[in-house]
Amino acid sequence: MINITEFFWPKDYLLGVTKRIRYAKGGEKMYLLTGFLGLIAIIAPYIFGYSVDIAALWTSLIVGGVLIVASVFEGIAADRERWEYWVVGAAGVVAILAPFVLGFSSLSTALWTLVIIGIVTVLAAWTKLSPGRTQWR
């Protein structure tokens, strides 16, 4: 008798999907942290009231968008590549430096929001990229 599941999806494809699902369930959930930080970065200008400053607003939106996109790729990727963590680390560095470089460091809420998000993101990326780590996910 023909198995209807194997007719529509080859066995190799199903094995790959189940391995990815099993790996995602047992793996670390760093993508949830980076996605949450990205969401905070996007909504922070409206919650803390610094959406009137264009540089602070767009910095928060861009950093948050990059973090969310990177976290989505972290969550769905079945490989053990590290590029997502490099992108997250770079976004964290941008978040830390942007208030000083773009000149909105006088807005204390924007400054501290982005600096804290940046520090947490850099630390999260560093824990994944540290040289002593033998397994990247």
Overall description:
The protein is mainly α and 137 residues long. The protein has helices spanning 4-8, 11-26, 30-48, 54-76, 83-101, 108-129. Helix 3 packs antiparallel against helix 4, helix 3 runs antiparallel to helix 6 (108-129) and helix 5 runs antiparallel to helix 6 (108-129). The longest helix is centred in the middle third of the chain and has 23 residues, at 54-76. The radius of gyration is 19 Å and the shape is elongated.
Which short descriptors sum up this protein?
single chain; 137 residues; mainly alpha; elongated
Quick structural summary:
This protein has 137 residues and is mostly helical. The protein contains six helices and no strands. Helix 3 (30-48) packs antiparallel against helix 4 (54-76) and helix 3 runs antiparallel to helix 6 (108-129).
Q: Give the termini distance in whole angstroms.
A: 40 Å
Order of helices and strands: HHHHHH
Number of strands: 0
Share in β-strands: under 5%
Question: Compute the gyration radius: what is it?
Answer: 19 Å
Largest sheet: none
Q: Low-confidence spans: pLDDT under 50, at least 5 residues?
A: 17-27
The secondary-structure class comes to: mainly alpha
What's the number of helices?
A: 6
Shape: elongated
Let me know the average pLDDT. Answer: 81
Helical content band: over 70%
